[in-house]
Write a structure and sequence with these properties.
Strand content of chain A: under 5%
Radius of gyration of chain B: 23 Å
Helix content of chain B: 55-70%
CATH topology of one domain in chain A: Four Helix Bundle (Hemerythrin (Met), subunit A)
Mean pLDDT of chain B: 95
Distance between the termini of chain A: 67 Å
CATH class of one domain in chain A: Mainly Alpha
Number of helices of chain A: 7
CATH superfamily of chain B: Cytochrome c oxidase-like, subunit I domain
Number of helices of chain B: 17
CATH topology of chain B: Cytochrome C Oxidase, Chain A
Order of helices and strands of chain A: HHHHHHH
CATH architecture of one domain in chain A: Up-down Bundle
Largest interface: A-B, 45 and 55 residues
Distance between the termini of chain B: 37 Å
Largest sheet of chain A: none
CATH class of chain B: Mainly Alpha
Oligomer: heterodimer
Radius of gyration of chain A: 26 Å
Structural class of chain B: mainly alpha
C-alpha cells in the first residue's frame, strides 16, 4: 500500500496530481435529534438517581404512613391510562402533520394536551388526598421525602411538556408550524414519549413493587 | 439562524468602536469563538481567585500553631478553593477551549446550537457568582468541596451559605449539561463533508467522550444537590440520619458524579496533548484508533470506580474488591495513551517550543499522579493514607501536573490562532520553569508529609509532630508558583499588542483550524472544506503526496 503510494507521489510532480476518491455522504441524525437524544440520556441519569434513591430508602420510615397505607391504585391507574393514551395521540398528531393534515394535527395535539392536563390534575388530587387524609408531607418521613421528590420531578417534566405543546399549538394556529417544518413537533413528541416511559418505570417502582 | 446574521458583523469595523458597542457585541454574541474566549477568561479569573485562596491556606500552615486565618476561615477557604478550581476553573476552561476549537477542527461554521451555547456560558458564570455570593451571608460554606453530609444539614451549617453553594452548583451544572449536549450534536452531525468519525482530529474524540461523561455525571450531582436543598429548606430527610436518612448515600451520589468528573477534567487535555505532540515531533499520532478506543474505555470504566473514594467508610469486602479492580482496570487504557504519546515522540524531530515544553511537563507529572493513583486504588494502602496530604499530593499531580500543564500547552499552541500574535517564548519559558519547580516542591513534598501522617483539612499542627519543615517547603513552592501565573497573564496581555504576527499556520500543523486566518473570521471558513484524510491541511499543502493515499 505505502509502496504504491510513494511511487504515485514520485510521478505526480511530472504528471497530474493524485485525485482524491469521491466523498460518500454520511447518514446521521440531525443536530436537533442528536441534541434531544443526549439530553434524554441525561434525563435518564437524573431520574435514575432519584429512582435508586427511592428504592434505597424503602422501608426506612421512622413514622407512618407507609406506601402500603397511603397509596391507592384506582386513581393512579386512570391517570396512567391517560398518559399512555397521550403517547398515542401525540404520535397521531405528528403523523397528520407529516401528511399535511393541519387540522388533524391540531386536534390530536390538543387531545394530547388535555390528556396530559388530566394526568397532572389527577396527581394534584392524589397529593391533596395524601396531605389531608394521611398527613403525608415531604417532611413527614422518608417515604414522603422520596415520593414527593420523585413523583414531583416527573410532574415537573409533564408540566414542561405541556408548556412546550401549548406553545407549539399557538404557533400552529398562526401557521408557523406546518408540514414544511415538522422537526420541532417530532422532537417534542420524542420528549413526550420519554416522559411517558419514565412514568411507566416510576409507576412500576412506586405503586407496584414498592407497595 | 444565528449563522445567517453573522456575515453582517464580520464586515471590517472602524478600530475605535465605543466601549458600549464592544460590550454589547460580547454580551449578546452567539459566536462559538467569542463564547469560547469568554469561558477561558472566566476560568482564568477564577483560577486567580482560587489560587489566592490556596496561598492563604498555605500561609496559615507555614508555622505550627499559627493563627493567620483561624479554623473557621481556613475551612471556608479550602471549600471555596476546591469548588472554584473544579467547577469554575477546570470545567469552563476545557469547555471554552473545546468551544473554540471543535467547530474549526471539524470544518463547521458554529456549534449545533449557538444560542444554547451562549446560555450555557452565562449560566455557568452566574452559577459561579452565586457560589461566591455566599460570602455575603457572613462567610462561605465550610463543608469541603465534596460537602459530606451531615455537615450540609441545617444543624451543622446554619447560615444560608450552603444553600448558595448548592444552588450555584446546580445552576452552573445546567450550563455544563448544555455544553455537553451541544458538543455531542455538533460532533456527530456537523462535520465537514468527508470527515468521517475516524478522521476527526483526536481532540474532537476526547471532547465527544467528555460530553458523554457530562451527560451521565452532572444529573446525579444535580439530584444530590436538590436533596441537600430539600433537606435544608423543606425539612426532607434524605441525609437526616435521625429520621432514617443515610449520610453514606450522599457519598455514593456525590462520587458517582465526582469520579467521572475527574475524567471530564482530563480527557480534553489528553486530546490537546495528542494534537500538540505530533506537530512538534513532526510525526502522525501513533495508534489513533487505539487512542480513540482507549478514550471510550476510560469513559465507560470511569462510571464504575466511584467508591474508591470511600474505602475507609467501611463497605463490604466484595465492594472493596470490585472498586479496586475497576480502578486498576482504568489505568490500562490510560497507560495505552501514555505509550502512544511516547511512541509518537520516538524517532521524531522534536522541537522544544513552549507548547511542547508544557506537554513534556504534562507527561512527566501526570505519570507520577497516575502511579500514586494506582497506589491509592489499592484499598489496604488507601486505609493508611486516606485523607492525608499524600492524597492531596496525588490529585494535585493529576489536576495541575495533568490538567493545568495540558491546558497551558493548549493555550500556548492555539493563542496565535485566537489572537493572530505569538506569545513571547522567553516569558513562556520563565512561566514553565517557575511552575514546574514550584509545583514539584509544593506537591512532591505533600507526599512525604502525608506518609508522615499529616491529615488534610487541619488548620494547624503542633511543633512536635515534625511537619513544620515540610509545610514550609510546600508553602515556598506555592510562593515560587505564584509569579508563574502572573507571567502568564502578563504574557497573554502583552503579546496581544506586541507579539510577533503569527500568520495562519505558525506551527506548520495539519488540522483544519490552521487552514483559516488568524483570528478566524466569524463564519470560520469561506468555503466549507472537504476532507479526505486525518490531516486535511497536509493534503492541501502537499497535493503531490496527500495523506489519503495511505489510509
Amino acid at each position: 500500500m505505502s509502496a504504491a503510494g510513494i511511487v504515485t507521489a514520485g510521478q505526480a510532480t511530472e504528471r497530474t496530481l493524485p485525485v482524491p476518491p469521491a466523498i460518500v455522504a454520511e447518514r446521521t441524525l440531525s443536530p436537533g435529534q442528536w441534541g434531544l437524544l443526549s439530553f434524554l440520556v441525561s434525563e435518564v441519569a437524573l431520574f435514575g438517581t432519584l429512582i435508586v434513591t427511592y428504592v434505597f430508602y424503602l422501608g426506612n420510615n421512622v413514622v407512618g404512613p407507609t406506601p402500603a397505607q397511603a397509596l391507592k391504585l384506582p386513581l393512579v391507574l386512570f391517570t396512567t391510562a391517560c398518559l399512555l393514551a397521550s403517547s398515542g395521540t401525540v404520535h397521531l398528531a405528528e403523523r397528520n402533520l407529516r401528511r399535511g393534515n393541519q387540522g388533524g394535527f391540531m386536534q390530536w395535539w390538543l387531545a394530547t394536551i388535555v390528556l396530559g392536563a388530566v394526568f397532572l390534575g389527577g396527581t394534584g388530587y392524589e397529593w391533596h388526598d395524601l396531605i389531608y387524609r394521611y398527613q403525608l408531607t415531604i417532611s413527614r418521613n422518608l417515604f414522603g421525602t422520596t415520593y414527593y421528590t420523585l413523583v414531583g420531578l416527573h410532574a415537573l417534566h409533564v408540566t414542561g411538556g405541556l408548556i412546550l405543546m401549548v406553545i407549539v399549538l399557538g404557533l400552529a394556529l398562526h401557521r408557523q408550524v406546518t408540514t414544511a417544518n415538522p422537526e420541532g413537533v417530532g422532537l417534542v413528541s420524542y420528549y413526550w414519549h420519554f416522559v411517558d416511559v419514565v412514568w411507566v418505570v416510576v409507576f412500576t417502582v412506586v405503586y407496584l413493587l414498592g407497595r | 439562524m444565528a449563522i445567517v446574521e453573522e456575515p453582517l458583523k464580520a464586515t471590517p469595523q472602524p478600530a475605535a468602536l465605543p466601549w458600549t458597542a464592544v460590550l454589547h457585541d460580547w454580551v449578546t454574541t452567539v459566536d462559538h469563538k467569542k463564547i469560547g474566549i469568554m469561558y477561558v477568561l472566566m476560568a482564568v479569573v477564577f483560577l486567580v481567585v482560587g489560587g489566592v485562596e490556596a496561598l492563604l491556606l498555605r500561609w496559615q500552615l507555614l508555622w505550627p500553631r499559627y493563627d493567620f486565618l483561624g479554623p473557621d476561615v481556613f475551612n471556608q477557604m479550602f471549600t471555596m478553593h476546591g469548588t472554584t478550581m473544579v467547577f469554575f476553573m477546570g470545567m469552563p476552561i476545557l469547555i471554552g477551549i473545546g468551544n473554540y476549537l471543535v467547530p474549526l477542527m471539524i470544518g463547521a461554521r458554529d456549534m449545533a446550537f449557538p444560542r444554547l451555547n451562549a446560555l450555557g456560558f452565562w449560566v455557568t458564570l452566574f452559577g459561579g457568582l452565586l457560589v461566591y455570593f455566599s460570602f455575603a451571608t457572613g462567610g462561605a460554606p465550610a463543608i469541603g468541596w465534596f460537602a459530606y453530609s451531615p455537615l450540609t444539614e441545617r444543624t451543622f451549617a446554619r447560615s444560608t451559605a450552603t444553600d448558595f453553594w448548592a444552588l450555584g452548583l446546580m445552576v452552573s451544572g445546567v450550563g455544563t449539561l448544555a455544553a455537553g449536549v451541544n458538543f455531542i450534536a455538533t460532533i456527530l452531525a456537523m462535520r465537514a463533508p468527508g470527515m468521517a468519525l475516524h478522521k476527526v482530529p483526536f481532540f474532537v474524540w476526547t471532547m465527544l467522550w467528555t460530553s458523554v461523561l457530562i451527560i451521565f455525571a452532572i444529573p446525579p450531582l444535580t439530584a444530590g444537590l436538590a436533596m441537600v436543598l430539600l433537606d435544608r429548606n423543606l425539612g426532607a430527610h434524605f441525609f437526616d440520619v435521625q429520621n432514617g436518612g443515610s449520610a453514606l448515600w450522599w457519598q455514593h451520589i456525590f462520587w458517582f458524579f465526582g469520579h467521572p468528573e475527574v475524567y471530564i477534567l482530563i480527557l480534553p487535555v489528553f486530546g490537546m496533548v495528542s494534537e500538540i505532540i505530533p506537530v512538534f515531533a513532526r510525526k502522525v499520532l501513533f495508534g489513533y484508533e487505539f487512542m480513540a478506543a482507549a478514550t471510550a474505555a476510560i469513559t465507560f470504566i470511569s462510571l464504575g470506580v466511584w467508591a474508591h473514594h470511600m474505602f475507609t467508610v467501611g463497605m463490604s469486602r466484595t465492594a472493596d474488591l470490585f472498586f479496586i479492580m475497576s480502578t486498576f482496570m482504568i489505568s490500562i487504557p490510560t497507560g495505552i495513551k501514555f505509550f502512544n504519546w511516547l511512541a509518537t515522540m520516538y524517532g521524531g524531530r522534536i522541537s522544544f517550543a513552549s507548547p511542547m515544553l508544557f506537554c513534556i511537563g504534562f507527561l512527566s507529572m501526570f505519570l507520577i499522579g497516575g502511579l500514586t493513583g494506582i497506589m491509592l486504588g489499592a484499598a489496604p494502602f488507601d486505609f493508611q493514607l486516606q485523607d492525608t496530604y499524600f492524597l492531596i499530593g496525588h490529585f494535585h499531580f493529576v489536576l495541575i501536573g495533568g490538567t493545568l500543564f495540558g491546558v497551558f500547552a493548549g493555550i500556548h499552541y492555539w493563542y496565535p490562532k485566537v489572537t493572530g500574535r505569538m506569545l513571547s517564548e522567553r516569558l513562556a519559558r520563565w512561566q514553565f520553569w517557575l511552575l514546574y519547580v514550584g509545583f514539584l516542591l509544593t506537591f512532591g513534598t505533600m507526599h512525604i508529609s502525608g506518609v508522615l501522617g499529616m491529615p488534610r483539612r487541619i488548620y494547624t499542627y503542633d511543633a512536635d509532630r515534625g511537619w513544620a519543615l515540610l509545610n514550609q517547603l510546600t508553602t515556598l513552592g506555592a510562593i515560587i508558583q505564584a509569579p508563574s501565573f502572573a507571567i502568564f497573564v502578563y504574557n497573554a496581555l502583552w503579546s496581544l499588542r506586541h507579539g510577533r504576527p503569527a500568520g495562519d499556520d505558525p506551527w506548520d500543523a495539519w488540522t483544519l483550524e490552521w487552514a483559516t486566518t488568524s483570528p478566524p473570521p466569524t463564519y470560520n471558513f469561506d468555503l466549507i472544506p472537504t476532507v479526505h484524510s486525518r490531516r486535511p491541511l497536509w493534503d492541501l499543502k502537499h497535493p503531490d503526496d496527500p495523506d489519503w493515499q495511505y489510509d
